[in-house]
Amino acid sequence: MEPGTIDNLSILYQSSDFIVVNKHWDIRIDSKMWYETLTLQSQLKYRFPELADPDTYYGFRFCHQLDFSTSGALCVALNKAAAGSAYKCFKDRLVTKAYLALVSAHSQVLLLDLSSGKNTTEGMTHMMCIDGTEGCENPKPCQSELIVLEHGSYSGEPVTKVLLQPLTGRTHQLRVHCSAIGHPVVGDFTYSHKKDSSPYRMMLHAYYLRIPTGKELIEVCAPDPFVTTMDSNWVPHHVTHRLDETIQELK
């Protein structure tokens, strides 16, 4: 629950070609805004100044993206060849990603198959939306799998801890899908129609990442932040699926 600082970068994996970090929940990956000096980019430059590549705009090659308010496993390539091998894995859909989330109310196991597109409604152009809703432009196929892990409560309200696997790679995909089925991610101010502003963060975390590059297999789990010892507001009541067993099945 501590805010991010320049020197609290958590490393999950490191080789000569890649670093996987556990991105903090309140830090952007990078920023072109002069006033945003604390970013993952600046954390990496502070921790590994000798690894920054002057031929890149941000100093480091990010293999994929996480939203500003999403924490968890993020892979960084340390050279052009490594970035190319990771890009090919993503392009060929060989990468496995799974996220942990607390979602509002009590949900069930679902395959979410809802096309999403850009929201063109005035005041909502930074958002995505589901096909068929007003202002939804150029919707594309979008699939996610939701597996219930535990039912419980957060600050006294019913919530469900879930494992989410994006089967496609659309912008804000998991957040849009959860909101569309009436179970928005706890703390997601944007996709709760600006109603959920109480929690200290959005409860979405990139937990598992597997990238089978030609030279090495990158496979990491970013520690689960949604446990009572980390956040006493979360109180589990009933376990439906165990996280470790679910990840083994996913592999």
UniProtKB/TrEMBL annotation:
One of the protein's GO biological processes: enzyme-directed rRNA pseudouridine synthesis
Gene3D superfamilies the record matches: Pseudouridine synthase (3.30.2350.10)
GO molecular function, one term: pseudouridine synthase activity
Annotated TM spans: none
Domain of life: Eukaryota
Assigned protein family: Belongs to the pseudouridine synthase RluA family.
Protein name (record): RNA pseudouridylate synthase domain-containing protein 1
Species of the source: Eurypyga helias (Sunbittern)
